């Protein structure tokens, strides 16, 4: 310790001693506390001086106790993110491989020409959108708060990054950075979903759900035939199937179960994010707005989301659509155009001025 540190320490110890003397009950006249009691009291002062702070409360103590747990969870999530990305690539690749080796040849040999054309066009269009948007969602930075001093308006200072936090910015403990318009940290992307990759994330969820539904419906009859064939394996005597035919049956069973399960799970997530986008809020803002709405309701006031531009306009802002033709070029087709705005400042709709009067 330096001279200044020792002075601060003894000054703090002196304040604690004076405070202890004032607060301790005075012994009766003629009775002094025993030496052990004096030693115990003095030891408590020494111990309290090691962590004394006027801002210390039970929340701070609990955060300090659980800090190792938070650190372990954050680091495990960061490492598991790499595993989840590899898992998405492996499962998607296995489905595409089965479709090309098993489903598509059967469609070409048994379906009419117009249905073959439909499956070839729709299937490849959906696949291209899935691959493109997943790649962009994983590799595109969500946007972070500027580390240098700038003239942008800020709401507060991040206690962990010690940098200004613009509006709609929140700190991600896994990425250890403040993310612009943070929605959530997605382990399946190993990346945060923020201002610059929110569109890629939602488009990937949407097209992946559509692709899984497409595979489930298209391969339903094939799945039923394969399931009945597998059930017949246990008959006496069992029917004769070659190893290639058994592999074909099991592949179709795997394809249908996987795509149906993902369609249900990911479909629910996609619907939830679609509701949030329609309301003009993120997952983090949803929790904050609910608390604020409840608080204002108790005092007889009405809360309005300052970033809600209307249902259609919220979708236009997300997809970066300014013309009608861009619904095709920027939504139905892969596009790497940047989102509207820089994520540091936000234009508020007209009703915000009315809401300010209401609040």
Automatic annotation (TrEMBL):
Enzyme class, broadest EC rank: transferase
Listed GO MF terms: protein-cysteine S-palmitoyltransferase activity
The principal location of this protein is membrane
Q: What is its EC number?
A: 2.3.1.225
Name of one Pfam family that matches = DHHC
- How does this chain sit within the bilayer? Multi-pass membrane protein
> What's written under domain?
The DHHC domain is required for palmitoyltransferase activity.
Q: Which family does it belong to?
A: Belongs to the DHHC palmitoyltransferase family.
Q: Which PANTHER family does this chain map to?
A: PALMITOYLTRANSFERASE ZDHHC16 (PTHR12246)
What is the protein's name according to its record?
Answer: Palmitoyltransferase
**Organism this protein belongs to:** Ictalurus punctatus
Q: What is the lineage of its organism?
A: Eukaryota, Metazoa, Chordata, Craniata, Vertebrata
């Amino acid at each position: 310790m330096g001279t200044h540190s020792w002075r601060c320490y003894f000054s703090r110890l002196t304040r604690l001693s004076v405070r202890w003397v004032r607060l301790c009950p005075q012994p009766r006249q003629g009775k002094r506390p025993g030496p052990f009691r004096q030693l115990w009291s003095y030891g408590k002062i020494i111990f309290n001086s090691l962590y004394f702070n006027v801002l210390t409360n039970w929340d701070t103590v609990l955060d300090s106790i659980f800090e190792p747990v938070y650190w372990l969870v954050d680091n495990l999530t960061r490492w598991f993110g790499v595993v989840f990305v590899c898992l998405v690539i492996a499962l998607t690749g296995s489905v595409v491989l089965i479709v090309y080796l098993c489903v598509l040849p059967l469609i070409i040999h048994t379906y009419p020409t117009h249905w073959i054309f439909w499956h070839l066009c729709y299937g490849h269009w959906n696949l291209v959108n899935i691959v493109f948007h997943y790649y962009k969602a994983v590799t595109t930075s969500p946007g972070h708060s500027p580390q240098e001093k700038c003239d942008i308006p800020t709401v507060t200072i991040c206690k962990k990054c010690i940098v200004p936090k613009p509006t709609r910015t929140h700190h991600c403990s896994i990425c250890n950075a403040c993310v612009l318009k943070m929605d959530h940290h997605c382990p399946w992307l190993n990346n945060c979903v923020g201002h610059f990759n929110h569109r890629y994330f939602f488009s990937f969820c949407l097209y992946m759900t559509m692709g899984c539904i497409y595979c489930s419906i298209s391969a339903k009859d094939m799945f039923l035939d394969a399931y009945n064939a597998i059930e017949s394996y246990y008959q006496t005597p069992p029917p004769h199937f070659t190893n290639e035919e058994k592999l074909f049956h099991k592949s179709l069973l795997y394809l249908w179960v996987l795509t149906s399960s993902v369609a249900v799970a990911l479909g629910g997530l996609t619907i939830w994010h679609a509701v949030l986008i329609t309301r003009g809020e993120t997952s983090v803002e949803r929790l904050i707005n609910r608390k604020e709405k409840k608080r204002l309701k108790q005092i007889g006031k009405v809360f309005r989301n300052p970033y809600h531009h209307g249902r259609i306009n919220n979708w236009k802002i997300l997809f970066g659509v300014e013309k009608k033709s861009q619904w095709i070029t920027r939504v139905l087709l892969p596009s790497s155009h940047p989102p509207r705005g820089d994520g540091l400042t936000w234009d508020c709709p007209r009703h915000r001025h009315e809401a300010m009067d209401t609040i």
